[in-house]
Amino acid sequence: MHKGDEIRLQTVTLHSSIFHPILRKWQSVQSISSDNIVYPVFVVDIEDAKLEVDSMPGVYRYGINRIIPEIKPLVEKGLKSVLLFGVITQLSKDTNGSSADSKDNPVLQAVPMLRSSFPDLVIACDVCLCSYTNHGHCGILRDNGSIHNELSIKRLAEVAVAYAKAGCHIVAPSDMMDGRVLAIKNALREAQMCSSVSLLSYAVKFASAFYGPFREASKSSPAFGNRKAYQLPPGSSGLAARAASRDVDEGCDLLMVKPGIAYLDILRQTKQAYPNIPLFVYQVSGEYAMLYHAAKAGSFSLEDGVAETLTAFRRAGADCIITYFAPLILDMLAEGKL
Q1: Which residues are paired to 282 by β-bridges?
Q2: Distance (Å) of CA 292 to CA 27, 76, 114, 303
Q3: Lowest-pLDDT range, 67-76, 133-142, 175-184, 323-332?
Q4: Taking Cα atoms as reference points, which of 323, 307, 327 lies closest to residue 28?
Q5: 81 by DSSP, 3-state: which?
Q6: Is 80 a catalytic residue?
Q7: How far, in Å, CA of 190 to CA of 203, rounded?
Q8: What mean pLDDT is reported for the chain?
Q9: Are 94 and 139 in contact (CB under 8 A)?
Q10: How many helices (H) and strands (E) does the chain have?
Q11: How far, in Å, CA of 272 to CA of 156, rounded?
């Protein structure tokens, strides 16, 4: 070996930095704790239900009589936050999404129960109309089937205020309507709740193939057409930047990128643009199903696959990760596997 090669070998040696677990942690600044994890929970309008989602094994829709006993062991393991989604099978669906804030809405019933049972649990509520409209779109439609943006954001603001009054800490509009952040902020201000309820904006939400299992779980598939006219095209990094800028200007407290694995570059782009705003990433239903079924087929260890994706999210800039793997992650943390 030439002397120059020997010197180069010495300067590029990496093994000496990673041979011990503590050394490896020192080299990996993207730590994972229960503080970083948000658990999405489906709440269905069947009081005693526990219904597994066929395309997402291990994920359930819970009735309000089941949600407390199901969440309790997770809180005891360190769960800090949940994101609630309403699912209706008995309440009516209409063009205005009237059941989204009716007194019988399962989310509105679940929030005060969770607040009472788990005072330290942070409760976020997804704000959208797709699960409550008879057409399955995220806003109110015009006669020609296009989105009526002005009526949509007014309705979304009404729903957000209802969730806030029920006791949630965070409202999270996922509809992608123009101007909904400002409309919700103004409605919260009028209700004198603007300082006590945070707004987590699904600011950068792409029209993705990875949402399929969620639409089954929430019974929110569009009856016609698609959502490409209001969700972002997958290749649009420029629109992603504009969407985040718009929502920051309108007063959102927290930002989100959705989905996760296929959009790590957008996650990094958003964090670099807004380093002082907490950034969430949503590991969506299709990502859950993909990892679950690949692991079940023997392609890799589920724990290893989940851990690697969490690290990728944190490395790219995510402060919090919304994931259906939360129960598994809590067990992994307890066992020192993260």
Answers
A1: 322
A2: 29, 25, 28, 10
A3: 133-142
A4: 307
A5: strand
A6: no
A7: 23
A8: 90
A9: no
A10: 13, 10
A11: 30
Q: At what angle do helices 149-166 and 106-117 cross, to 10 degrees?
A: 30
Q: Is the model's pLDDT at 183 over the cut of 90?
A: yes
- The answer to whether 138 touches 151, Cβ cutoff 8 Å, is no
Residue 117, class by beta-carbon neighbours within 10 Å (0-12 exposed, 13-18 middle, 19+ buried)?
A: middle
User: What distance in Å separates the CA atoms of residue 286 and residue 36, rounded to the nearest whole number?
Assistant: 21
- Cα 8 to chain centroid distance, Å, stands at 46
In this structure, what DSSP letter does residue 262 have? Answer: G
Instruction: Give me the DSSP letters along 223-260.
Output: SSS-STTTSBPTT-HHHHHHHHHHHHHTT-SEEEEESS
Beta-carbon contacts of residue 216 (< 8 Å; ≥ 6 apart): 53, 54, 55
Write down the catalytic residue from 258, 271, 296, 337: 258
Q: What is the pLDDT of residues 291-312, one digit of tens each?
A: 999 999 999 999 999 999 999 9
Catalytic residue among 80, 93, 185, 205: 205
Q: Is 93 a catalytic residue?
A: no
**DSSP secondary structure code for residue 147 in this structure:** B
Contact present, 63 and 48 (Cβ < 8 Å): yes
Which amino acid type is present at position 330? L
DSSP string, 25-62: HHH------GGGEEEEEEEESSTT-EEE-TTSTT-EEE
CA distance 159 to 128: 8
Q: Which two tokens stand for residue 231?
A: 């969700």
